[in-house]
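Please, structure for the following, as tokens.
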Amino acid sequence: MTYVVTEACIKCKYTDCVSVCPVDCFYEGENMLVIHPDECIDCGVCEPECPADAIRPDTDPDAKKWIELNAQYSTVWPNISEKKDPLAGAEQFEDQDGKFEKYFSKNAAVQT
């Protein structure tokens, strides 16, 4: 089992999960994070840290469509190992449905 980041992260990109991850398996896109499935050690410490409730075990029925997306983008987006501020206006997007179709970006985060 591994964990995956789901649609709830899009347009929020809280990084509380990153600060507790013991293996730095998070990768940063322009408007969301993903988890590298081969690096995740299945410890689960990230899941309760997410304010948007965006992290699920890959065994969760709602996580199935996110397994491939996490695997794909974790190989092209840059690694993130330190907490950052969430995206501006994150609170207004927390409970919104259909965020993938409306807002998902394939672009990597801009590194500063």
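The radius of gyration is 12 Å. Residues 3-82 form a domain with the Alpha-Beta Plaits fold (CATH 3.30.70.20).
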